Amino acid sequence: MKKFLLCALLSSSLALAENIVVGATPVPHAEILEAITPELKAQGYDLVIKEFNDYVLPNKALDEKDLDANFMQHEPYLREFNANNGTKINAVASVHLEPMGAYSTKIKNINELANGAKIAIPNDPTNESRALDVLASAGLIKLNENVKLRTPIDIIDNPKKLVFVELEGATLPRALSEVDLAVINSNFALNANLNPLNDALIIENAQNNPYSNILAVRAGDENTAKTTALKNAITSQKAKDFIKQKYQGAVIPSF
């Protein structure tokens, strides 16, 4: 009888557990979510992580209510996505910064970059502009400061006559053998076993950086029980400690 009651209680508690479905890119986002799974479990939630390899589909899936939240983008990208797609998705927590870096398999120092070198950069507006800022920080180009989201046409000085190749962000690591330099978001770099601290020839400055990666939900869901539990778990001390220990400065907590 006691065994029966125990089984019944366990079945009841399992039945009460709710799923929280979150879309994420694999590294580091899905890894960070995996680390907070026990904390959510203790609050009665089963975390279901759906992995994506781009930035568009997770926002579409969230907008279409296939996800409860997503974790794969920074706020400037989200603002641009909402403006271009009519979606209403809001940031609810700033979680971490992934400093963008420039990588090469052909040169070991940025000073070795030849005239007319091919440079691969992301093709979405916010990350393209961000990548050009990285190159400008190294003195390779100068940009029109009066333009908010810059593209190669906004380069006002290009002394090495660099040639720019615009590619989808996820494909940039695979393009390294075809170009002289590629500016890559750190989630895609880490997924390709490239460490921003050790492998990047240029790395973005982390101070006062607006590109922290965020937890995002549909407008109106900012204060639901699920969102509150997820927000508290992903900005907990345990999450911060995991990020610091796992990535050793290649990913930086921003809470």
TrEMBL record:
It is a lipid-anchor. The gene is metQ. One of its GO terms (cellular component) is membrane. Belongs to the NlpA lipoprotein family. SUPFAM superfamilies: Periplasmic binding protein-like II. Pfam families: Lipoprotein_9. Keywords: Lipoprotein, Membrane, Palmitate, Signal. The keyword Repeat does not apply. It is found in: Membrane. PANTHER family: D-METHIONINE-BINDING LIPOPROTEIN METQ, METHIONINE-BINDING LIPOPROTEIN METQ. This is DL-methionine ABC transporter MetINQ, substrate-binding protein. Residues 1-17 form the signal peptide. The keyword Endoplasmic reticulum does not apply.
